[in-house]
Amino acid sequence: MPKEFPLAALQAQAIAARTYALKLLGKNEFFDIYSTQASQVYLGLEAETAKINRAVNSTSSLALFYENKLIEAVFHSSSGGRTENSGQVWKYQLPYLRSVVDYDQNSTKYRWSKEISSTELDQIFSDLGGLNSIQIIKKSNSDRVLKIRLYGPKGNKIISGTTLRKNLKLLSNKFDVYMKFNKTNQEDKLIKINSFSDKNKLNLDKIFYSNLAPYPLPEIPIDYFLSVQGYGAGHGVGMSQWGARTMAERGASFRKILKHYYTGVQIKRY
User: Fold this and answer.
1) Strand pairing report for 145-152 and 133-139
2) Distance separating alpha carbons of residues 96 and 196, to the nearest angstrom
3) In this structure, how many other beta carbons lie within 10 angstroms of the beta carbon of residue 39?
């Protein structure tokens, strides 16, 4: 969490991070947590500030519990308007990791886009011989992509939205897919084609709107980019750091922030 965030947000982060670390104690033989995104990022003593130390010290020994057990206190940067149920991202639905309204609209990553050329797609999906077309086939209630079907010269396959996020290096799996047409003396055209009646013909003058596609996106021409337009950053489960910032700016205490993002939890000493 950026050190410039309000104290209440930093206090909430301190408690979430402490709980997350405590939950991992003893899981590995030689060490407990990584200092990277594999566990949680720690930049070293030189990154600490008086405000950060105040947030840590003022919440000393406080942790998050559900039915007297430490919780999986996961967190992320920004959810794009609504956090996600844990069961939509991981194997289990935990009672305290439920989808709630987020207040992250001021996040620098609330809305984003990324363009990928057909040449890049050929390299990324070399196992399919490249990528001819793409089809979103399942989304969560918070509009995150859960399943996608990819079509290539060598066949097709279904992958998760999380896998596509990793392959395309996207900020989150809350996105829509467009084709962007670039041609000299012609305005760029963004085409969201998720419902296409004639699979053998691409009508550049018509835009089809539908959340889920009964047919795949038409074959991507060589002079197109795949344009991915999305919201938020991270897996979207648990506490949103940018949402915590807004709540703190509006006067919420760290207790109110934590109880908003972690349903039904207790904040107490461990």
Assistant:
1) antiparallel
2) 40
3) 15
Cα 233 to Cα 21, 29, 114, 172, 227, distances in angstroms: 22, 32, 13, 5, 17
Q: What is the pTM for the complete model shown? A: 0.84
| Single-letter residue type at 84 | E
Distances (CA, A) of 176 to 32, 146, 165, 181: 38, 12, 12, 16
pLDDT one digit per residue (tens) for the chain, 270 residues: 999 999 999 999 999 999 999 998 888 888 888 888 888 888 888 989 999 999 999 999 999 999 999 999 999 999 999 999 999 999 999 999 999 999 999 999 999 999 998 889 889 999 998 887 888 889 999 999 999 999 888 999 999 999 999 999 999 999 998 877 664 444 455 656 443 333 333 333 333 333 344 455 556 666 678 889 999 999 999 999 999 999 999 999 999 999 999 999 999 999
Q: Which residues pair with 156 in a beta bridge?
A: 151
C-alpha distances out from residue 109 to 58, 76, 219, 230, 249, Å: 30, 12, 30, 9, 18
